[in-house]
Specification:
Structural class: mainly alpha
Shape: flat
Distance between the termini: 42 Å
Largest sheet: none
Length: 90
């Protein structure tokens, strides 16, 4: 009985994710009508002085966000290392 309930909930969650993504995800190669995409494509080289638009977005426009992601990753790796460093793991 528990397996059936879990299975039904899992099907509903996965179905909901696919239903939500079907409307929000653009086809490959089509950026859609997001106004910031056009801004980045047309101003990245002039404002940031780089030829690679992806690099300018990650390191210049979203630098603080990238720094936060790196801090979260460092914290996660440090936590796992601290857990495995205990006396029982030698």
């Amino acid at each position: 009985m528990k397996f059936r309930v879990f299975f039904v909930i899992a099907i509903l969650v996965v179905g909901g994710l696919f239903w939500g993504a079907a409307d929000a995800v653009h086809p490959f190669g089509n950026p859609g009508d997001v106004p910031m995409d056009g801004y980045f494509l047309s101003h990245a080289q002039r404002e940031r002085g780089v030829n690679n638009v992806v690099t300018s977005i990650v390191f210049d426009y979203r630098g603080f966000d990238t720094l936060g992601e790196a801090a979260v990753l460092f914290t996660a790796v440090s936590s796992v290392a601290a857990l495995f460093r205990g006396k029982g793991w030698r």
